Amino acid sequence: MNVLILGGTIFLGRHLVPALQERGHTVTLFNRGIHSPGDFPDVEKLRGNRDGNLSALEGRKWDAVVDTCGYVPRIVSMSARLLAPNIDRYVFISSVSVYEGNDGVMDEESPVSKLTGTTTEEITSETYGGLKYLCEQAAEEAMPGRVLVIRPGLIVGANDWSGRFAYWVNRAMVGGRVLIPDATEQVCQFIDVRDLAEWIADMVEKKATGVYNADGDANITFGNVLKACFSERKAGEYEFVRVNEEFLLENDVVPYREMPLWIPKVWGNRIFSSEKAVKDGLLYCRLSDTIEDIRSWLLTVKPREKALGKSLTGARERELFGKWSVR
């Protein structure tokens, strides 16, 4: 098959390219050429801009397109409508953020966030989910019955620069006193980017359509993650300093981003069911394999802080230690 990837050079796309190539498929990338333009030398690269310069795509034919970087419905509509006459399937990578509500198990039939009475294109924590849902609709309107919508949860692995999982892998590598939230029983869902990429390749080959959640195992807890990350450290090489939720919120520690994987109880408890995807072939690797892959990648990043996004810095952690001791 000939597969076009919109984006493809930052995170998910970097893993999707080899997943498709190893199955014998031909991959073409369309992007601005800003991120790692020299990577994948054996892949055809088309340059342009999704917001106004799609000329490189005109008149070309592919079996499928995977849209890894669609966030604004107007822009998704532009690419989907242009490609509609010349492709068989449009795979849109959405997000479980489309679901509304703060508690309960969310499957593909659960209510979604709908932006009404606004034409905003500003992506914020309040609009992200609603815009993603409108992007799904834009693709379906352009190619009715030929769209596969995939809604991942937190995607983790090598080349994830957000730090939302790698923080804990790195923290285990550093050792010492480690500030952790008192939330070890909290469900902790995430999906290894390699598992997601392989499954997307499967679904492209099946010419699948419809909507699928693609999140991780809901049986894994935050405590499981900590135990796995620190499993290679010896006793005495680290010490967990457990602090309560109230302390973190009082000190304006940003959940999930500054303190990765932590979701305050006041935010609710959402579980995303991927049962449909699992029945259609989604497989999960071992937690230890995910951690080892991230650890190996972190060793290549100089300085490692570049890979930790906006997560807790050493200085901020020491500041919190001081405040917790006083309290």
Dominant shape:
globular
Overall CATH class of the largest domain: Alpha Beta
Give me the CATH superfamily of the largest domain: NAD(P)-binding Rossmann-like Domain
Helix segment tally: 10
Low-confidence stretches: none
Strand content: 15-25%
CATH fold field value of the largest domain: Rossmann fold
Structural class: alpha/beta
Sheet of most strands: 7 strands, parallel
Please tell me how large the radius of gyration is.
21 Å
Give the strand line-up of the largest sheet.
3-2-1-4-5-7-11
CATH architecture of the largest domain: 3-Layer(aba) Sandwich
Mean pLDDT rating: 96
Using DSSP, what is the number of strands? 15
Order of helices and strands: EHEEEHEEHEEHEEHEHEHEEEHHH
End-to-end separation in angstroms reads: 62 Å
Number of domains: 2
- DSSP helix fraction: 25-40%
Description:
α1 links the parallel β1 (2-6) and β2. The protein is globular, with a radius of gyration of 21 Å. 31% of the residues lie in helices and 19% in strands. α1 (12-21) crosses α5 (193-206), α2 runs parallel beside α3 (128-142) and α4 packs across α9 (287-298). The N and C termini lie far apart (62 Å). The chain folds into two domains: 2-152, 3-Layer(aba) Sandwich (Rossmann fold); 166-189 and 217-268 and 286-326, no CATH class. 39% of the residues are buried. The chain has a seven-stranded parallel beta sheet with strand order 3-2-1-4-5-7-11, with helices on both faces. It contains ten helices and 15 strands. It has helices at 12-21, 73-83, 128-142, 166-174, 193-206, 222-229, 245-250, 275-279, 287-298, 314-326; strands at residues 2-6, 26-31, 44-47, 64-67, 89-93, 103-106, 147-152, 155-156, 176-181, 191-192, 210-214, 238-243, 255-256, 259-260, 269-272. The chain has 327 residues and is of the alpha/beta class.
